[in-house]
Amino acid sequence: QIFNQHNAEAPSLEQAFQRMAQMEPNLDHDVSWFLLPSYWSKMVVALISFLCFANSYDGDFVFDDSEAIINNKDLRAETPLGDLWYHDFWGSKLSSNTSHKSYRPLTVLTFRMNYLFAGGFYPVGFHVINIILHCTISVLMVDVFSILLGGLQFSNKGRRLNLAPKSSLLAALLFAVHPVHTECVAGIVGRADLLCALFFLLSFLGYCKAFRENKEGHTFSVFWVLVSVGLGAIAMLCKEQGITILGLNAVFDALVINKINLLELIRKLLYKDKSVENAGLLKKGLLFRITLLMCGGAGILYIRWRIMGTGPPAFTEVDNPASFADSLFVRAINYNYYYSLNAWLLLCPWWLCFDWSMGCIPLIKSVSDWRIIALAALWFCLIGLICQALCSEDSHKRRILTLGLGFLIIPFLPASNLFFRVGFVVAERVIYLPSIGYCILFTYGFSLLSKQAKKKKILAVAVLGILLINVMRCALRSSQWRSEEQLFRSALSVCPLNAKVHYNVGKNLADKGNQSAAIKYYREAVRLNPKYVHAMNNLGNILKERNELHEAEELLSLAVQIQPDFAAAWMNLGIVQNSLRRFEEAEQSYWTAIKHRKKYPDCYYNLGRLYADLNRHIDALNAWRNATVLKPEHSLAWNNMIILLDNTGNLAQAEAVGREALELIPNDHSLMFSLANVLGKSQKYKVGNWSFL
Fold first, then answer.
1. Where are the domains of the chain?
2. Of 277, 250, 247, 253, residue with least CA distance to 264
3. Does domain 599-692 have CATH number 3.40.190.10?
4. Cβ 624 vs Cβ 640: under 8 Å
5. Highest mean pLDDT out of 62-71, 123-132, 210-219, 673-682
6. If you average pLDDT over residues 125-130, what whole number do you get?
7. In this predicted structure, which of 309-323, 452-466, 476-490, 607-621 has the lowest mean pLDDT?
């Protein structure tokens, strides 16, 4: 009757589409939730996502931010932009054996822009960009969830219809306030995940645009499919997970656009049924589009592999102990346990930690370990969901469950250890994209409960309570990410067996001058991990400064025995041996450090001090000169050269060195003072007095 009406008061074709959509199964029919216009829904989501993480805007650079930002030379203007394409996320050459092969040049480019616009390393600008990115992503989620939960339909004017406004709002709010996202938003390094998610979603929305019927009547647009592939490539240049959107686009195409029944298709393939075409595999250009996605993905991966090199990234056993287990059974059972922990973080994000390595999660070595229950629970739930997604007679239910599982599992695959070893045990940041699938499944479960519940308002209040608790948890966790002291101490109760947590607390205390407390945490780190060479090195340094030289020597000797190429430990061992007046051993330790780290100005400086103590003046001057060549602003090396030349009566040479040093470090008062003494002895009083100014 709708289409037979043709008078002025007849409903438009767009209204007809909406009425037809309402006749189909729809989550919003059962969901007891707020119904807002699309614009207001997005405003609400943006505001709440901002409130969750706003208090992190003035936080410090913490944890990995130091290496990825402060110590990353790729951020500085003197580094050519082209180098970003050949360096990893941390600024190391991809061809280096020590590179982690994390190739994210576009993320590093945004860090560089932050640095240049701010005129230095000011964290506020970095944090503000992260917050804005998360708010933008959360707003986009309203559109994404409206498609995933309500289906993809367009009006006659080509405008996409939101057929699940209530459900999409709920799912977007769940995503926006999930506490597991705090690491990505409050930790500046998490921008890689945020940028990846942004282009991941844009790729999905672009792929959906391909099915908006154009003026020529074509059922899909090749242009938008190619745009989607391009956006997927950009997502991967922000972080490796981005490539998974191409697979998800293919899944979406098969389930939503072509409405394929996977179980029916599998049966026909197994029985070699000639009616496979009728199952939808070749309908509407599906095969052609999947070919485009596969070719695009293969090309992107090939280019990435060529740039990265053929060698896999180098990780240590403490980074991911399960991957180094000799037994295939032990590896498999622990990988699955890690999956269950990730699932638990999505379900109950209360125990959050900046690092889950170094004994935080002990290996499961036998089936008698009670933690096997977690594996069984995970697979019981997954198998149940998969069976429902494949076998349910309700096509609407099959579609939502399959999409939910797809968005939960596929983006997680690069972090699963299935294809290559990863450098972590559990990492909250890698759950940012998989949480989309969790929000789909949660919203669908809520709709089922609402359908059965007699008191729907109580259920809605309970969900509101969950959202409110998550908002407060996000705010609390964001405040912990504001400084390293709060972040590291927050991890002590979550991962008390994690040696790295105790190490970082100790290092933070040592940096603040509280050596006595730092020693306690360093000792605990070494106790938990007897091969933790960095903790041994730092503890040895503090003991050296407290003149506890024999224990310091024991620790540093053990550190270089465990890791023979640990240059810093060799240098510190040389300093201790020098203090113990074992000069030959000290000299050997210094040269061993330089052997393992060619460009080591501090080691040359200490070697020069050793030679000066032995009255080997020429060797001392050469060592200090090497230090200044490697590090022109090495004030101590310059000063020692001036003083040594002064003491040995080489005033002209001392003056020349002093003037050379002041050209490089014009405001160094110690250099001015030393040069003034030399000029005074040379009776150049006027110039000498000027040097004091």
1. 199-310, 321-478, 599-692
2. 277
3. no
4. yes
5. 123-132
6. 95
7. 309-323
